[in-house]
Design brief:
By secondary structure, the protein is of the alpha+beta class. The chain has a domain of 184 residues. It is built from 22 helices and 11 strands. The chain has a 5-stranded mixed beta sheet with strand order 6-8-9-11-10. Helix 8 packs across helix 9. It is globular, with a radius of gyration of 28 Å. The chain starts with a helix and ends with a helix. The N terminus and C terminus are likely disordered.
Length: 492
């Protein structure tokens, strides 16, 4: 179920002549960054499956993931899902996956935003589904003593009765699973007919019909999307700040609002997780435990790095540990800003150690490579690419604890690094965030904001081998370029 199981599908070597001016790895992750135009259906399918797998984190880190699966697969709810499926034609696995994500199978679930019930239906949508949400008006009676001055100036007191109206909910079909579940199934079937695909119907369930109509219109105008393959997955993977700018900006707006462009992927992931629970509840519970953070006391894991890194990974307790390890778990970072696209200037200025794991440095080099490649594709005349400023690589635990920053403890592993983006040109920062999201949604890395202008980044355990290969390749190309340079100098 985890992204690490599938990640190898995208680690495909590509024959490519390296640029003499910038580091250009021969091993690439397919479809990342600038590689968006005219993607094959096989690549879209591979990326979609990786994206589906990466949603496991968002679901399994929740405290109710196991209890919700138990509720959803109970005989009572299963009977409702199957009956609704038979009446609507919508697969019961889709209906139950939505119920799982929306409420964890709780008929009494209520969202602060308004939706209610097992299917989390809003009042407006309930009306379109034929569900009744009825209120009656009642009055709250209060009596107050009011002073009244007479002509003589003497105050007399009398009792004034006030009736204040208020609404009382007397019927809400959303809270009745036997009504809400079949209504939601019919709604999904109708959306499938209207928008021409089950994936769009699921998208509409979260985003709304108006939202999907807009997204489909923009997707039709987008570059590189065949008219007969206009799916939610292709829409999502075809957005780019370099081209399909309108689609990119609209998806960004929806992501900021409620992450609805990722909803179909989450539903597909929930289907797989519920199938796992049916097959092996103990394995499901074990998976949930794997998504508990060992580095945070919060009820749920705050981000992917807090799950991927364990206490046993925090092995560098002091400077002596770091010095003794060089060449084993740690290697020196290569500091050639113009060539690699990142700078260690701030690391050196603050007397920080310029070492990390090969996977961390390979991840840094790959992020810089994809960011520069995308930035160059935008052909901006008024902005020049600036090497990414690295602020921290490996750090000893005794130094980190002085900072009193729990996130910084992960630096004791050598698997993470920080980038300061405060001085980046706006377009380059946009490219950096796009590349990070691209790699993050596919399960290759995790990142989190740390402070005002700092990003805390690390690759997934399943992709460390790939990024280590990138690091090794960077070492080889650096040495090769150095030899060429020396020979050239000798000729002169």
């Amino acid at each position: 179920m985890r992204a690490a199981y599938l990640i190898i599908l995208a680690l495909l070597p590509i024959g490519h002549a390296a640029s003499p001016d910038h580091f250009s790895p021969s091993h690439r992750l397919m479809g990342i960054g600038v590689s968006r135009d005219d993607m094959s259906q096989d690549l879209v399918d591979t990326r979609a499956e990786l994206m589906i797998q990466s949603q496991t984190f968002g679901i399994m880190r929740e405290a109710l993931a196991v209890a919700g699966a138990k509720r959803i697969t109970s005989p009572k709810l299963q009977s409702l899902f199957k009956a609704a499926s038979a009446a609507s034609g919508m697969p019961s696995t889709v209906i139950e996956a939505i119920a799982y994500l929306e409420s964890w199978g709780d008929a009494n679930a209520q969202s602060p935003a308004g939706p209610r019930g097992i299917m989390q239906i809003s009042t407006a949508t309930a009306a379109s589904m034929g569900l009744k949400v009825t209120y009656t008006t009642k009055y709250r009676v209060t009596k107050d003593k009011v002073g009244v001055k007479g002509k003589s100036g003497k105050t007399t007191w009398r009792v004034v009765t006030r009736k204040t109206p208020y609404r009382v909910l007397v019927r809400d079909d959303r809270m009745q699973p036997e009504r809400a579940v079949p209504a939601a199934a019919r709604y999904l079937a109708g959306m499938e007919q209207k928008f021409g695909g089950r994936d769009w119907a699921i998208f509409a369930y979260h985003c709304g019909q108006g939202c999907v109509t807009l997204m489909q219109d923009i997707t039709r105008r987008a570059r590189g999307i065949p008219k007969d393959h206009m799916t939610v997955a292709r829409m999502f993977f075809s957005n780019s700040p370099a081209w399909n700018r309108e689609l990119y900006e609209t998806i960004q707006q929806q992501m900021q609002r409620d992450y609805s462009p990722t909803y179909w992927f989450r539903v597909m992931c929930a289907q797989q997780l519920l199938a796992l629970y049916r097959r092996d509840p103990l394995e499901f519970a074990h998976l949930a435990e794997e998504y508990r953070s060992q580095l945070s006391t919060a009820p749920r894991a705050p981000h992917r790095l807090s799950v991927w890194l364990k206490r046993d990974d925090l092995v560098f307790h002091n400077d002596n540990d770091i010095r003794a390890d060089l060449g084993k778990k740690l290697v020196k970072a290569l500091n050639r800003p113009e060539y690699f696209g990142y700078s260690l200037r701030q690391v050196m200025e603050h007397d920080h150690v310029d070492q990390a794991s090969p996977a961390a440095i390979g991840t840094l080099a790959y992020i810089a490579y994809e960011t520069r490649r995308l930035f160059d594709e935008m052909h901006l005349k008024d902005q020049k690419f600036q090497p990414l400023e690295v602020t921290s690589l490996v750090e000893p635990e005794d130094l980190v604890r002085v900072k009193n920053n729990p996130e910084a403890l992960t630096h004791c592993s050598g698997q993470v690094f920080d980038i300061d983006y405060s001085a980046l040109p706006p377009a380059e920062l946009e490219c950096l965030r796009f590349v990070l999201n691209d790699l993050g949604w596919e399960g290759y890395l995790g990142f989190v904001e740390e402070g005002k202008d700092n990003l805390h980044i690390g690759c997934s355990p399943g992709s460390r081998e790939f990024f280590t290969t990138v690091f090794e390749e960077s070492i080889g190309k650096r040495l090769a370029n150095q030899v060429v340079g020396d020979e050239g100098a000798g000729v002169r």
